[in-house]
Amino acid sequence: MVQNTRLSESHIPWLTFILLTILFFLIIGHDFTFPLREQVDASAEMFEEMIQEGNPLRRISLAVLVLLAMSLLIFPKKQRWQPDLILSGLIIFLIVWSIASTLWSEDQMLTLRRLSVFAAFWLTTTALALRFPILQLPYFALFSATIFLVIGLATEIATGTFTPFLKEYRFMGTIHPNVQGENCALLFLSTLILSVNRTTRRKYFIILCLIALVFLIFSKSRTSFVSALLAVLIFFIIAKPWDFKKIIILCGLSGLVLVLGFIILNLTNEGITTVYSGVNLGRDIYDLDTLNGRLRIWNLCLTYVSQQPLLGYGYDSFWTVNNIVQLSSVVGWGLKSAHCAYIELLLSVGIIGAVIFLSMIGYGVYQSFKRWRAVPDNAGYGFIFLILIFYLLQGLLESRLGQMGYGVFLILWGLSHLALIKTNETV
User: Fold this and answer.
1) Residue 230 lies in a domain
2) Model confidence over 362-399: pLDDT tens digits?
């Protein structure tokens, strides 16, 4: 039975949404002075200081997150659940393997700190999955991503740094432009799936979707931009495999978005720049043949992977102070990421852990799309599918799929729901 749209929208847990948004604002590390920084990328010394001292506000926020999870678990809704044995088994195996990695970690205290975040995220997302219907997931992503976007825009306007038509400009707001681009991509995907599946307020979802796309372009986050468009294309091609007319129209619209985006980003006082600059989203082109230095980083990281291929260096613990200093001195800038989620997983939990993790994600892709096809009016499953595809694509050039963050929190929420099949669910 398909649940009534108006009923589901009128029961949005606003207090939970607001609290989670505030907590993730602090956990992510939003900073109102970010647009005024001369250099947005941290140095090796800054990374070293962050690892050694940690972030008190982040620790407090994580503690509150755990308290929220416990309060939701204490007063659960009276519902019958039947676990998906495959997905539940993969999740348990990953958790056990990650905890066991403490035994061979080079920095056990760092591993335990990262595992505490890992545990807090899983506990909270499990509680959310048990408490709320899956339709709340895209609504939460819409709400929180909109708040982050509005705060970021207001910050840039207040500081006089909102200059979108200058060639060197990148929209960042209160966070790194690549993270802001990821946030805009999540807003774009959530509003898109809600506009497709919802019958009420559709025009508002479409407007917000277009706004998210514009600011995603302004962030000049090329990986998030392309990954979001490809995720949408893949979703609709699979959803309507024989509707060639709609596929052609969708591809044409995507191409139009790309062209308009390139033109908008390259309008300077001197006119439109070269095609190569347009394809690069208006950013300066340097070292393009090595993916802006990524190939060098990957080669360096893979030498470490080859030394401990099966086990890795402990859950999210490869980037110790010594490794940060050593690798940063080689590449010439502050380095605390492999810039590839798959290499990051190998460094973290080795081949065994990476296979478990990717199997979990792959099975989640299959189940989310299967359920979306079975209940096409439910935007929740469609959103899970979209963000899983988005992060799998983004993971080719970024590391966030292999690290605990806002986007991974949304993924874990979706996977927790898929792992606990509610037998009496009215979606």
Assistant:
1) yes
2) 999 999 999 988 876 688 999 999 999 999 999 988 88
